[in-house]
Write a structure and sequence with these properties.
By secondary structure, this protein is mainly alpha-helical. It folds into two domains: 1-40; 42-176, Four Helix Bundle (Hemerythrin (Met), subunit A) (Up-down Bundle), CATH 1.20.120. 89% of the residues lie in helices and 0% in strands. It is built from five helices and no strands. The chain has helices at residues 2-40, 43-73, 79-109, 115-144, 150-176. Helix 2 (43-73) packs antiparallel against helix 3, helix 3 runs antiparallel to helix 4 (115-144) and helix 4 packs antiparallel against helix 5. The longest helix is centred in the N-terminal third of the chain and has 39 residues, at 2-40. The radius of gyration is 28 Å and the shape is elongated.
Length: 177
């Protein structure tokens, strides 16, 4: 008889243990999801990347002032300034790509105030990245051209203006997102 009474108790204990294990699994899964979403999508990280891009744009602007001075006054020595400006453009492009990825992760994790603004920020980030790539190409073309052509300089300046417009739109969209 004692054997018969132990069977229901064992069954009840198994159910309780199963429920406890199931609850622990659920809590562990929720914790993992909570921390993984925070690690993958943090609007503060995107804001820091944008701040870094602002700083690198200032450095790029100084580099471009040097490029323009050398192209206007001493084109034979413009090579170093062109290379330095192109390096800054490459850095900006890399940061823009990272910013787009952070914004995509924020969107996927639901970490935004305005989804449409975040979508615009993602698109403007991609556009700014494309435009800075054109800037890179024109800087490299000016490195190669002997003498540097006025047409290439004009195309470079146009791309810089378009890039600056994209960056302004990106910053406004991120402020709203």
């Amino acid at each position: 008889m004692s054997h018969a009474t132990l069977a229901p108790a064992t069954s009840v204990q198994r159910k309780r243990a199963g429920a406890l294990i199931s609850s622990l699994r659920g809590a562990a899964l929720a914790t993992v999801l909570l921390f993984s979403a925070g690690a993958q999508a943090d609007p503060a990280v995107a804001a820091q990347i944008l701040q870094t891009i602002r700083y690198e744009r200032q450095v790029f602007d100084v580099q471009m002032q040097q490029v323009n001075w050398y192209l206007d006054h001493d084109p034979s020595h413009a090579q170093t300034a062109l290379i330095m400006a192109r390096i800054e453009a490459v850095k900006i492009d890399a940061k823009l790509k990272r910013l787009v990825q952070e914004n995509l992760a924020s969107r996927d994790a639901g970490q935004y105030n305005d989804l449409q603004a975040l979508e615009r920020a993602i698109e403007y980030g991609r556009t700014a990245s494309q435009r800075i790539k054109f800037v890179e190409v024109y800087l490299q073309t000016l490195e190669i051209e002997r003498p540097p052509s006025a047409i290439t300089r004009q195309m470079l300046n146009t791309q810089i203006l378009l890039f600056n417009m994209s960056m302004q739109q990106l910053e406004q969209a991120m402020a709203q997102a």
